[in-house]
Amino acid sequence: MSSIREDMPLFVRNEGEWDCLYTFVDLDHNVLDQYRVHIICEFPDEDDVAYRQTSTNRWPDGREETTQFEARYDAANKRVTWDNDRMKGALWEVDDMTIYLSFAFHAMPDVRVCEMIQLSACGQHRTRTWHWFRNDALYQRTLVKEKRIAS
To answer: pLDDT digit of tens for each residue in the chain (151 aa)?
Structure first.
């Protein structure tokens, strides 16, 4: 059995369903894209799966895209890691309200994303900031506002 529930209590508090608003901005704060996302965070403790996230993106024009990724738990380093056909990365807890992620998309080898997630003390609200780097230069940010809709 995975020790993720004991080792990463903040991360596990994210379990449940979230309604999210993603806003992508350029360096001058111009909105590049904005859409809603329904996220389901699960900790199934299956063979080689400590975490599963299902995200359904819904754009105002009616487009919809669902993606899912599964991750492993590296208990020795207290990190969640994933490497799938879409992306590779890791996350870890920084303090009692902050989770840090570093990841890259295989289709964009010159791009790296650094993300911070803050979970409110009540556990009902999250906020995220993504910093997108291309060839080590910041070129855009993603701002995310989230509200828990189910545990």
So the answer is: 459 999 999 999 999 999 999 999 999 999 999 999 999 999 997 888 999 999 999 999 999 999 999 999 999 999 999 999 999 999 999 999 999 999 999 999 999 999 999 999 999 999 999 999 999 999 999 999 999 999 9
Q: Give CA angle at 76 (54, 112), nearest 5°.
A: 50
Domain that holds residue 74: 4-150
In the chain, how many domains are there? 1
pTM of the entire predicted model:
0.94
The alpha carbons of the chain give a radius of gyration, in whole angstroms, of 15
Residue 45 falls in which region: left (phi positive, over 0), alpha (psi -120 to 50) or beta = left
**Dihedral over Cα of 51, 119, 91, 142: its sign:** positive
What CATH number is attached to the domain comprising 81?
2.40.128.20
Q: Measured at the alpha carbon of residue 51, what is the angle toward residues 69 and 85, in degrees to the nearest 5?
A: 25
Q: Is the dihedral of CA 104, 43, 72, 127 positive or negative?
A: positive
